[in-house]
């Protein structure tokens, strides 16, 4: 029993490290959006739509990886997918560093996004299998380490900017993290993702469940709430508020710290507050903060509101994953892959739409439009609470 506990603990910590790796790969890019414009855009620079296309391509590749590999993970080895994801992520970072043109950069971020997508697909079901009695708290802790990795990446990128190091050097340095984590997993064994004595819930059966459909829409809006702000935050601080590139990077780091703390607090609160009411309150606070971010009385208040929005909106994605896993514990990696793909569709589409809106108006209006995401999620959460009471979809803890 002691050996099993030790093995499970080491596997859990390795999953945290892998989550930090994929976050590092994904989150240093926004710090360098204006640098990419200077490098690849010529005298006029890249347009807002072209800049928005960089995270859009990355997250679309993320989604493709999740949808392709999710069903395979239920039939294969979870360990194999972890190792493949780490290797592809590391290779993607290397290709980003060597990008000679804007088109090649899009290809590079697609490779990196694919590797990160494989990791994101498999990590949540592994953690749910490691901690079946406290899925919501465990998945919030896992996703808190996404924020830890994001903070690390943004701080490294921001310090590199200040010291004059190229984004190419930063990308090469970050290859060390997935390499270390790859070596860590080689020493571990992982549990089965579902109860092997019980039939797995098929995706066609899940799609016929109204509650599951609402979970899909809600996680789309949850992902959009996060990245609709985070992907544009450094640019907003620099161009909308008049601060330096370094200030934009440090603000994004503050946003990620807020998200990490928010998910840790949510993991503790979910011992006392049901997940749906918790998300409902967080959505309401986040919607108000978007107004302060978009039309602030002062730039300092805008930055403070953005960091606070990272805290308040942080639990939406992981808690919705946990709600779905509690409702359908035999969903397996396929269910997680569909949920994650839909969530990342929100992460991809909404930042791009913000860029389109900015082209026709300004960045303040673009960020204000993101407020529709937490407001829409509130409507869904009210429905979910009523449905749960009437249908008893989610079993009691």
UniProtKB/TrEMBL annotation:
| PROSITE patterns, alphabetized | MFS, PROKAR_LIPOPROTEIN
Which InterPro entries does the record match to this protein?
Answer: MFS, MFS_dom, MFS_trans_sf, MFS_Transporter
Where found in the cell?
A: Endomembrane system
One Gene Ontology cellular component: membrane
Query: Which GO terms label this protein's molecular function in UniProt?
Result: transmembrane transporter activity
Residues annotated as domain Major facilitator superfamily (MFS) profile: 11-388
Keyword Transmembrane helix found: yes
Q: What are the entry keywords?
A: Membrane, Transmembrane, Transmembrane helix, Transport
SUPFAM superfamilies of this UniProt entry?
MFS general substrate transporter
What topology does the record note for this protein and the membrane?
Multi-pass membrane protein
Query: Where are the membrane-spanning stretches?
Result: 12-33, 53-73, 80-97, 103-130, 142-163, 169-190, 211-229, 249-269, 276-295, 301-323, 335-358, 364-385
Please state which protein family the record places this protein in: Belongs to the major facilitator superfamily.
Spell out the PANTHER family in the cross-references.
BYPASS OF STOP CODON PROTEIN 6
| Protein's recorded name | Major facilitator family transporter
